[in-house]
Amino acid sequence: xxxxxxxxxxxxxxxxxxxxxxxxxxxxxxxxxxxxxxxxxxxxxxxxxxxxxxxxxxxxxxxxxxxxxxxxxxxxxxxxxxxxxxxxxxxxxxxxxxxxxxxxxxxxxxxxxxxxxxxxxxxxxxxxxxxxxxxxxxxxxxxxxxxxxxxxxxxxxxxxxxxxxxxxxxxxxxxxxxxxxxxxxxxxxxxxxxxxxxxxxxxxxxxxxxxxxxxxxxxxxxxxxxxxxxxxxxxxxxxxxxxxxxxxxxxxxxxxxxxxxxx
Amino acid sequence: xxxxxxxxxxxxxxxxxxxxxxxxxxxxxxxxxxxxxxxxxxxxxxxxxxxxxxxxxxxxxxxxxxxxxxxxxxxxxxxxxxxxxxxxxxxxxxxxxxxxxxxx
Lengths: 263, 104
Hints:
A: 0% strand, B: mainly alpha, 4 helices
């Protein structure tokens, strides 16, 4: 009895630690997702759709841009096949995200399907840039961040669609938190990846995408930049190995090795 | 009602498919050196693109000329370079932005 109790409290304290660290890391997403979620709920109700559709979408789809697109499509009664195709094009950028998470997610066990499901732009940013506390299991930290982010989105969507236009305080501009989050994550990446080539590749992709297809900006920019990055590979890795070129994950591996922890 | 539910399910499935595809495709083969390379450098590329995407729709020729977003973004970046405190950088940047769009 006693043993069981202590092991339970041990487990819950691990969970507690994971959520505490994840909460701290995800506060910017909290601000952004609540704001955007409310905006989405308001849009959906204003378009004459039933309020419960907003929380449903937050649960099942969980993709901001796609949900906004869905409101217009549902309103005009678009066919399911066309909706599927448009969603595929809009979310194709997510295919690139998985490429840099194959190895970390391979150790995630039963959490893996959910981690993949919750891979939004913001979650991807946090998972690839923020280092979990050394004493914390990586998978638990990832799962806690992913789950918290979806809760924020769910709550935002629900508030927006339930309160409708009854919302009295002016939250215009609070969604800048997401822009600020991307900027912070970029600064962290610049600190970890001290090579100019990836940023040249990104800039090239962005500028070309503006000309080629502003409507599918993210997808086109990502494809071009990833291609450019691949072409620059020899240049990037050609320099002195293992000095300034180490990315975040490599550095963390070394850190935890030095401290005798699990890799 | 059925239509609403079907749309949710279809969009949910397609979105999940786009997120899962790399994991399905590479589960059979051993991740190569090239994927190691991507894992190291792709996040930097993606973050740069995401920042760019947040600014691309601003009209820099009219209205506030994108000044609120540019100033707030610069404050966020500089604060983060200096203090390395995520919440401080984002909080200050967002606050400056919200004040600016109400003043200009």
